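Quiz preparation item.
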């Protein structure tokens, strides 16, 4: 925990499902710039709560790539796989408050309701029930995103009662993120727009856990030449770690920033210049077509 909690605090929180690619580089640099430009702290959290999707060695490769880029966190890297006790405590509290409930519904039973859980429809009890957050009618969330503008959502209608602990026993992303952002006193969440749709649920959870809501900035999505989300496509190539400044400069350009006056060859010098020159208001909403240059940064 910081000794100066009034400083803005941001984080980059990759899942260890592969190497950093152009999209995750954008999130890493974007979150770093927002924090540093405001004189704040920047942290790194490895979101390794989904072992079936994890790629062995990916977390270490991601951390090595960040070091080569000159993006050094202000404190130890936090790994969500070590934080189960904290998530369990939050879940217990939500159950005690009557905000969470045990659910025996199967995916196939919910399919008849557009896959959205608004009340239990299960006929039989399962050996491995999930635990959901109760989202009653009238649960509306509105927030101002620094890049995407005004966002409002009827969470009951759009997502319904959402999962906090999965039927397979793993923690749901929404719970882990909200508990950690709260425990780490994060004040500014900067991440890809693919997570914009998770934000209303996270704000509902923050309210139930009486946590302050951070400010949000969702960076433009990067699409490949066929209009697919870059990180999900075959073209999600890792960037070339041997050319950190070129990788940073490509991300800088995608963030709509003016070219720097000079181009230092050391990434630390480049970052110092960039954090001073950063203009958050220039970031486009997107989505952006990744240029040939960026999509191919990692080509051998
Ligand atoms: Zn149910």
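Solution:
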């Amino acid at each position: 925990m910081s000794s100066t909690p009034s400083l803005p605090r941001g984080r980059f929180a990759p899942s260890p499902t592969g190497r950093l690619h152009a999209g995750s580089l954008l999130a890493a640099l974007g979150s770093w710039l927002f924090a540093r430009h405001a004189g704040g702290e920047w942290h790194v959290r490895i979101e390794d709560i989904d072992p079936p999707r994890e790629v062995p060695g990916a977390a270490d490769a991601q951390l090595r790539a960040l070091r080569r880029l000159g993006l050094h966190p202000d404190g130890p890297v936090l790994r969500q796989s070590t934080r189960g006790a904290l998530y369990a405590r939050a879940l217990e509290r939500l159950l005690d408050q009557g905000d969470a409930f045990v659910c025996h519904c199967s995916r196939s039973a919910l399919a008849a309701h557009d896959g959205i859980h608004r009340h239990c429809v299960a006929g039989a009890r399962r050996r491995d029930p999930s635990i959901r957050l109760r989202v009653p009618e009238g649960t509306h969330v509105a927030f101002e995103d620094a890049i995407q503008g005004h966002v409002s959502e009827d969470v009951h209608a759009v997502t319904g009662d959402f999962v906090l602990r999965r039927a397979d026993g793993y923690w749901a992303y929404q719970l882990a993120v909200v508990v950690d952002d709260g425990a780490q006193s994060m004040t500014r969440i900067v991440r890809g727009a693919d997570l914009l749709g998770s934000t209303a649920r996270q704000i509902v959870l923050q309210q139930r856990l009486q946590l302050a809501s951070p400010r949000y900035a969702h960076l433009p999505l990067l699409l490949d030449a066929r209009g697919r989300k870059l990180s999900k496509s075959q073209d999600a190539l890792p960037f070339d770690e041997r050319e950190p400044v070129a990788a940073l400069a490509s991300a800088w350009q995608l963030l709509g920033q003016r070219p720097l006056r000079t181009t230092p060859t050391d990434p630390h010098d480049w970052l110092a210049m960039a954090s001073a020159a950063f203009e958050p208001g220039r970031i486009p909403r997107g989505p952006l077509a990744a240029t040939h240059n960026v999509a191919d940064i990692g080509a051998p």
